[in-house]
Design a protein that fits this description.
CATH topology: TIM Barrel
Number of helices: 10
Radius of gyration: 16 Å
CATH class: Alpha Beta
Strand order of the largest sheet: 3-2-1-8
Helix content: 40-55%
Order of helices and strands: HEHEHEHEHEHEHEHEHH
CATH architecture: Alpha-Beta Barrel
Strand content: 15-25%
Shape: globular
Distance between the termini: 33 Å
């Protein structure tokens, strides 16, 4: 299954939540990502945060290329073009960063890979869009103004597609505020794949929580 940029963007919007996850153990990564996919969130962000993270990503990417081609694996915490290029070569289908970097935008555009940089102002969002970023990450979502920030940006810039990470949790109260403000998707890490579920190796529990979150977002959109 080929996941081009349009397919990736569509998957992000459809599922509404992008699980954000990293673990140094490849087997844990495989089980968590499969649980997310089985729960309805096939588009998953693997964060580049640990020693030899890229090697873990390569192993995970190779596995899903053979075992479950429906999984859309992207990489997060990318701040420079060489690292983006490495992960793209290893199979990343989208790139996420805490901030915007022109060189990362160039390499992603050249390869038709979607780029989701972290932005904290209307100016940054507009600049990222100028460089072809279709869905812009707002980061850290809770610190830059939360749902009110999104609503205020979309007033003069209704074409913007915003995906906050940080400050979003899986509760109905939180998701209702964010999606009510106009976001198209959100990134959720430890509030979705919790330390308790990981410690217990409760992959069925992770799948259940992801499924419930995807269903809740669908219901809130329908309302």
């Amino acid at each position: 299954m080929t996941h081009d940029r349009m397919a990736v963007l569509g998957a992000m919007v459809t599922q509404g939540v992008v699980p954000v996850f990293y673990h140094p153990d490849t087997e844990v990564c495989l089980k968590v990502i499969q649980a997310c996919a089985d729960g309805g969130a096939k588009c998953v962000e693997f964060t580049n945060r640990g020693d030899f993270a890229s090697q873990t990503f390569l192993e995970v990417s190779r596995h899903f290329a053979a075992a479950d081609k429906s999984v859309i694996l992207g990489v997060g915490s990318i701040i420079d073009a060489p690292t983006a290029g490495l992960y793209i070569a290893y199979g990343a289908k989208f790139v996420v960063g805490p901030g915007f970097n022109v060189d990362v935008a160039k390499i992603c555009n050249r390869r038709k890979i979607s780029y989701h940089p972290g932005c904290g102002s209307a100016t940054e969002i507009s600049y990222a869009e100028e460089w072809g970023c279709e869905i812009v990450k707002v980061f850290p979502g809770g610190s830059v103004g939360g749902p009110d920030f999104v609503k205020n940006v979309l007033g003069p810039m209704p074409w913007s597609k915003i995906m906050p990470t940080g400050g979003v949790d899986t509760s109905e109260e939180s998701l209702k505020k964010w999606f009510g403000a106009g976001i198209v998707a959100c990134g959720i890490g430890s509030n979705l794949i919790t330390k308790e579920l990981l410690a217990a190796k409760d992959y069925a529990g992770i799948e259940k929580k992801v499924r419930e979150t995807v269903a809740l977002i669908a219901r809130l959109r329908g309302a």
